[in-house]
Amino acid sequence: MSDIASDAPQTLTDEAILARFQTSDNAPSGSRTLGFKMLAVRQVLREVEIGFEARADLLSNPMGQIQGGYVCAMLDECMSVAGLVASGMTCVVPTLEMKTSFLRPALPGPLRGLGRVVKWGKTICFLEGELFDPDGRLLAKASATAIPTPFSRFKK
């Protein structure tokens, strides 16, 4: 096998990508703070489903609601992971801008997020995310513009 072939990204199944996320011990601390757990990968739809465990220490007000910045972080996680998956696990997708609409308060407990890639261009991608409560009610929506950046750009 040539060196070129060994450097080519391998095609991973949805199940293989899901297993990578579920067995990874090196999740970023921000993901751990949000209670991140990958639930599903649907490459054909360029979509991921992520569970979050919104703990009481994410509250920001006396009404017992999760602080909006943490809701934004959850949505950003959904969208950026969808971009990572859409790239064949070869790129990160740093967010350039993000718009969030808050529809209902998020309360402590399990939450479910969906992230998807709407369009993948040569230098820019467009993403969407949604966050739901345990009863399936939509809590917040976001859209973002991001810049796909190959992991190879970070090699030293």
Write the layout of secondary structure elements.
Elements (H helix, E strand, L loop, with lengths): L2 H5 L6 H10 L5 H6 L2 E6 L4 E8 L13 H19 L4 E2 L2 E8 L6 E12 L4 E8 L5 E9 L2 E2 L6
For the record, the CATH class is Alpha Beta
Percent range for helical residues? 25-40%
Number of beta strands = 8
Sheet-strand content, in percent, reads 35-45%
CATH superfamily: Hotdog Thioesterase
Q: What is the string of SSEs from the N terminus onward?
A: HHHEEHEEEEEE
**How many domains, in number, for the residues?**
1
Largest sheet: 6 strands, antiparallel
Overall mean pLDDT: 89
Summary tags:
156 residues; disordered N terminus; globular; six-stranded antiparallel sheet; alpha+beta; 8 strands; two-stranded antiparallel ribbon; Thiol Ester Dehydrase, Chain A; 26% helix
